[in-house]
Specification:
Layout lengths: L1 E2 L11 E5 L24 E4 L5 E3 L1 E2 L2 H10 L8 H14 L9 E5 L5 H8 L4 E6 L2 H5 L9 E3 L12 E7 L8 H11 E12 L4 H6 L12 E2 L2 H10 L3 E13 H7 L4 H13 L6 E14 L3 E4 L2 E4 L3 H23 L4 H18 L14 E4 L5 H11 L39 H14 L6 E6 L6 H12 L5 E7 L2 E2 L2 E2 H5 L4 H6 L4 E6 L3 H9 L9 E6 L22 H11 L2
Parallel strand pairs: 6-7, 6-9, 7-8, 9-10, 16-17, 17-18, 18-22, 21-22
Antiparallel strand pairs: 1-5, 2-3, 3-4, 4-11, 10-13, 12-13, 14-15, 19-20
Length: 579
């Protein structure tokens, strides 16, 4: 038997026995897919540090590979339901995969998901599978694309796949670190890994304990959402989402998997068969979870930053992806203020990903930089940036504007992680930022206060009170950014109330000003690196922007302040942003 250590914490950590060993004679071990529960399992222990449930010793690797190679592939009538379940997951990551060039599936069975990937527009698919029975049942469309082998990253070019998919595979790995590192190696920078596994913290798992089908002699590791996230984080992935999976199976299958007395099970199955209910499909969140994670565009190796692309290029790519998210979410949820969100998005990307000292895992850090989106109607821009930065799961964005959702039309500090202050009523954000900056000065706290304002907002008298206050108190830890797109609710800023030479106005109140192209990421990064512009003076960046930037049909158009999108407009913009 091969000894196993906790892959998250390593050797030397304490472990507690949860389930004692109950193994068959190895010659009788059955590793076939969809076998009926037999209650065989390794001795399962829990790491007392991280909480991972795992086997402390397993069969030798050569024997495991032999068992998998000889296993039967017997999905039978459930294959169409599995296609729906896994296909829904793959379709759900479309917005994260701008280029569907190449997908790898590990443990691909007969390749049914590979077929779906081709149907979804992926140019090339590759699979690896040990079961000869599974490969023999593959459709001719994908059969020659399946490699009969265990996953070995050296079989593929590094940085070559847009997506790596696996389902019910990670729990079988004897070398989990090697598996995670191998996926990382073959993924392109920015590539996505989509994994499906069991959840040992699900209701059924807690009730059934070792009688639950997920505790069996094939599973080396049994994850919870927390431990699954930890293993991805350990290997430098950016975790986008870990959620419950709705499995779709026939009623017959659900009943077969329950640990019922055999006589009772036969009666129930016969009854539903007579009623013609046995093949009825039923979707239930019954104890599986799926994870979506991304290989960073740049990664930390031995303390050195390995640039897969320069910083500016990285931030441009992020902003491009976020623009697509804004368009998709606005279309699906009938959102407005799209032009305003697109206008300030590059600025927010530079601030959140480059300039501000913030930690999504330490929201109450007293030394964190502080941000207020004074133009609160552009909330969707802040939401997508916060989600991308890891403050909350990206899946939560789908609830934007939904009745009862935490993500409303304007930012709410009591609902949205990472939002420091509720805004929406214009003219107040800079005053609040002044208070934060002054308090930091008095406390000798290194934090800085950032505020993004709209140009029309600068017509408010309260803004000029704050400008005068900040200059007088020499708040050089205060940074204002003006999103100057020259359009406000009812017309051009120049026509409503001209702000003529905004830079000179600020500087007359003892500020230091700098004007930039608010969509030129190189300029944005360079100017943020120069903060503060002058000791003893607050800094203001006048960012010349375009309302609706990135969507030609909205650019520089007043109606983009209010308009929603129909399907045709959405598709046109997404196509434009995909070039």
């Amino acid at each position: 038997m091969k000894k196993i250590n906790c892959p998250i914490c390593g050797e030397g950590v304490d472990r507690k026995i949860i389930y004692s060993e109950n193994l068959p004679v190895i010659e009788q071990a059955d590793y076939s897919a969809r076998k009926n529960p037999d209650n065989y399992h390794y001795q399962m222990v829990r790491c007392t540090d991280c909480g991972l449930l795992f086997a402390d010793s397993i069969y030798e690797v050569d024997k495991l590979h032999e068992l998998y190679s000889e296993s039967d592939f017997s999905y039978g009538q459930e294959l169409k339901n599995l296609k729906r379940t896994y296909g829904n997951c793959l379709k759900g990551i479309d917005r994260l995969v701008p280029s569907k060039q190449k997908l790898l599936e590990i443990g691909c069975g007969n390749g049914f998901l590979m077929e779906q990937a081709l149907d979804f527009g992926y140019a090339e698919v590759v699979g690896v599978e040990l079961s000869q029975s599974a490969i023999a049942q593959a459709n001719s469309r994908v059969k020659d694309k399946i490699i009969k082998a265990a996953f070995n990253p050296d079989d593929f070019e590094p940085n070559s796949f847009d997506v790596v998919f696996f389902a019910m595979v990670i729990e079988h790995m004897d070398d989990l670190d090697g598996f995670m590192q191998g996926i990382y190696k073959v993924l392109k920078p920015g590539g996505i890994v989509l994994g499906i596994t069991h959840d040992e913290r699900s209701f059924l798992s807690k009730v059934l304990k070792d009688k639950c089908p997920i505790i069996n002699d094939e599973h080396v590791f049994v994850f919870s959402k927390t431990t699954l996230k930890k293993i991805f984080n350990k290997h430098n992935y950016i975790v986008k989402q870990i959620s419950d999976l709705k499995n779709i199976y026939s009623l017959r299958y659900w009943l077969t998997m329950l640990p019922l007395p055999s006589g009772l099970r036969r009666v129930i199955l016969k009854t539903i068969s007579i009623l013609a209910l046995d093949r009825a499909s039923l979707g239930i969140k019954a104890g599986n979870i799926f994870a979506v994670a991304q290989k960073p565009i740049s990664v930390q190796i031995d303390g050195q930053l390995e640039q897969d692309m320069d910083k500016v290029g990285k931030y441009k790519q992020i902003a491009k992806e976020l623009r697509k998210m804004i368009i998709d979410i606005s279309f699906r949820n009938n959102g407005h203020h799209i032009g305003s969100a697109l206008s300030c998005l590059d600025i927010l990307t530079g601030l959140y990903f480059h300039a501000m000292k913030i930690d999504p895992n330490n929201l109450q850090d007293p030394k964190r930089d502080w941000f207020v989106l004074s133009k609160g109607h552009a909330a969707l821009a802040q939401y997508v940036v916060l989600a991308k930065r890891g403050f909350f799961p990206e899946e939560a964005l789908q609830e934007f504007l939904v009745n009862g959702s935490l993500l409303g039309a304007h930012p709410d500090k009591d609902c949205v992680p990472g939002v420091e202050v509720s805004t929406g009523s214009l003219g107040h954000g800079l005053s609040i930022a002044c208070g934060v900056a002054l308090a930091a000065k008095k406390d000798k706290n290194p934090r800085r206060a950032f505020a993004v304002l709209g140009d029309g907002e600068c017509q408010e008298g309260s803004v000029w009170e704050a400008i005068m206050f900040a200059g007088y108190h020499k708040l050089d830890n205060l940074i204002a950014v003006i999103d100057y797109n020259n359009l406000q609710a009812f017309g051009k800023v120049d026509d409503v109330l001209d702000l003529d030479s905004l830079s000179r106005k600020f500087e007359s109140f003892n500020w230091k000003a700098c004007e930039i192209d608010g969509h030129d990421m190189d300029q944005i990064i360079k100017v943020l690196d120069k903060l503060p512009f002058e000791k003893g003076k607050p800094s203001v960046i006048i960012a010349k922007t375009i309302k609706g930037k990135g969507a030609s049909l909205m650019e520089n158009k007043l109606e983009s302040h209010y308009m929603g999108l129909n399907q045709e407009q959405r598709d046109e913009i997404i196509k434009e942003l995909s070039i």
